[in-house]
Amino acid sequence: MVASPLSWRRLLAATALCCLGGVGRLSAQVSIDLATGDAFNLRTPLTITQKGFPDIHVDDVRFLTHPFKSAPYFDLQVGFWRGTRGWIVGFLHHKLYWEDEVPPEIARFEISNGFSILSVSRGWRLGHLTLSAGAGAVIANPDVNIRGVGEREDAGFLHSVIGSGYYIAGGSLLLAAQRNIPVVDHLHLALAAKVSGSYARIPMPDGHATVQNVALHLHAGLGTSF
Asked: pLDDT for 176-192, tens place per residue?
């Protein structure tokens, strides 16, 4: 059963309070990093299932990211550290555009308002180098036109929280390495490489698309810790 808007707000508030309480009890250090960059997507299979039509299956779809087109590509991370170990909550706003070798039945296939990954990772600090491994949920907002039918218009799973068209569509695994270069007190330049492997079932007009994505993400940004 889908939680009501009030239940979601209570859950988010309770989670935030628990995190803040935990930080206080553990005297943990908090880090915040915001970065942009680009993603390089490997060729992966994709299947579109639409009621009344044969499936469309392509073995080697190559997605582009276009990081600064429309909604920008970015990565936000908040870390809670005790010594050299910590937990990292991340939001990676990934985007997928299918533009090359597209079958004629597909006029547009973009997950450009977000093939986003909301994740929790375990982190380890080795000097100025941070390694992390984690998992999370894929939150997708598709923009498609298949066989003359446009994107799905009904409210997504997350409509009551963040608006129409967003869906918890699947899951993702992540590995990352980040190098922090001190600039001034409590401010650093963050250079990172991240690998994500995702599997998602994206709602489409009268059906769905099964999307697999493996991507190398290269990021540069700024961070702070306190």
From this structure: 999 999 999 899 999 99
